[in-house]
Amino acid sequence: MKRNLFITFEGPEGAGKTTILNKIVERLHQHQIDVLATREPGGIEIAEKIRDVILNPAHTAMGERTEALLYAAARSQHFFEKVEPALKQGKHVLCDRFIDSSLAYQGFARGIGIDEVLAINEFAIGKRMPDITILFDIEPAIGLARIHAHNEREVNRLDIESLSFHEKVREGYREVVKRYPNRIKVVNADQSIDLVVEEVWHILKGILGEN
Ligand SMILES: Nc1ncnc2c1ncn2[C@@H]1O[C@H](COP(=O)(O)OP(=O)(O)OP(=O)(O)O)[C@@H](O)[C@H]1O
Ligand SMILES: Cc1cn([C@H]2C[C@H](O)[C@@H](COP(=O)(O)O)O2)c(=O)[nH]c1=O
Predict the structure, then answer these.
(1) What is the total count of domains within the chain?
(2) Among 113, 150, 173, 200, which is least packed by CB within 10 angstroms?
(3) Does any domain span residue 105?
(4) Residue 40 Cβ contacting ligand 2 at under 6 Å
(5) Is 178 known as a binding-site position?
(6) Per the domain annotation, does 37 fall within a domain?
């Protein structure tokens, strides 16, 4: 049965989420499938402003609970202003990061606790969860090296955390997968872009009912 889906891409820094998302959107359009691509934190004006506050490297004094609440606030605004209306219009939505980022980064790596972060997100968006999540798994050192090598975007406050923080993020994602084994599909992101695209397309086309 075909229905519109809320799909999220997750993973550590430099795993290739944005690169692959753009290629998957192209592929979906080639198949005449209507999809809205968006991102977190951001995607709409208010959430982009919150993003700037969270990720500004000068904001070194930001506490981890402030950080978790700001991500949840941006998520709430983005979800109700952009994601839910698109789903109601019958579009698929493909979002670069969503709640699992909060669970892995704030819940696990910052040490707030996955259940605590789930609770504030429940206040923000209720019990809504993606239909399907692709987790781009990669050694954090490789992902960070990609970002520094290509120099395509500004380095943000989270990028400059220690390697051990980013390793905890990866471990955090593994914990999240244990909680949601049916929803989250893990893809090896340490392969060529073409191979990763094919792996992700294989997963999505099965779910979307495409050939
Ligand atoms: N499979 C790959 N192999 C080699 N380089 C890659 C691969 N995928 C992406 N890259 C490159 O790595 C860099 C980071 O990619 P991208 O921005 O897509 O990652 P990301 O997961 O969205 O990162 P972040 O979450 O930190 O913004 C880009 O320069 C991109 O071209
Ligand atoms: C949604 C979300 C994101 N983060 C972190 C992850 C990244 O370090 C940045 C976003 O930058 P990107 O280039 O757009 O990937 O924010 C987080 O810690 N918690 C979240 O909920």
Answers:
(1) 1
(2) 150
(3) yes
(4) yes
(5) no
(6) yes
Is 15 annotated among the ligand-binding residues?
A: yes
Domain membership flag for residue 1: no
Q: What is the pLDDT of residues 86-143, one digit of tens each?
A: 999 999 999 999 999 999 999 999 999 999 999 999 999 999 999 999 999 999 999 9
Which residue range is the domain that position 107 belongs to? 6-208
Residue 8 assigned as binding residue: no
Task: Give how far Cα 103 sits from Cα of 79, 83, 150, 203, Å.
Answer: 17, 20, 28, 23
Q: Which residues have C-beta within 8 Å of that of residue 77, sequence separation ≥ 6?
A: 44, 46, 47, 50
156 lines ligand 1 (CB under 6 A): no
Domain harbouring 14, CATH code: 3.40.50.300
Which residue minimizes the CA distance to atom 7 of ligand 2? 158
Write out pLDDT tens, residues 100-109: 999 999 999 9
153 CA closest ligand 2 atom index: 13
